[in-house]
Amino acid sequence: MSGFLSIRHVGPLITTLVGTHVALTVASIARAGIGGKSIQKAEESFDAKHYDLMTDFVARMYQGRGIKSYKKNSIGSGGIVTGVKLAPMVTFEDPAAICVTEEEVREAFRALKKLDPVSLSPPVCINVEPRGDCIDLTFQLHQQYTLPLSQLQVSLLSLLTVTVQLQQMKDAGLPESEFLVTEMKELWYGNPLMWPYLLFFFSRRLNGIVSYHLTSRLL
Asked: Which of the pair, 84 or 17, is modelled with greater confidence?
């Protein structure tokens, strides 16, 4: 009897928690998709040519081609140095989810191909902003996705800010530098993320964890 009563008390609590999570997620996504739809096409940054590797990196991700694994280029190994790699604790966030760690971010962009992404226009680096020992690169994206089952096609304008650090390719035995990606943040239609940030952080982080485990097993 006591166990039955406990279930009766726990049930409403779980329902409330799930309902709150869903409500916060919907609010975050809805806010990101409302307003700002008249975002104007921006010109390429004067410094963009110095970051062509990053532009190619972003283009690959958003074409559903995933993120290549980093390979060390040693004599006779046939390895390839792409010049761009993810930091072990890299983060990616958008209005729907937050992914943390290289594995989660890599999986998110592997699973993206299931939405048949199409770049309606190539990514353009519109701003380069040094920040301490990092550099923030902002890209303007214009994407089209096909929703599963319904086959509904959705076009999306967004701003993607990629934070990178420059580091020497010491492990590859080369004098050149490579880009180490530490953060990525995508703002749909350029709209800021919902505020207060922490209130929506936990629901978006939970979405990132759940999607990682689901897509890695089911897709």
From this structure: 84
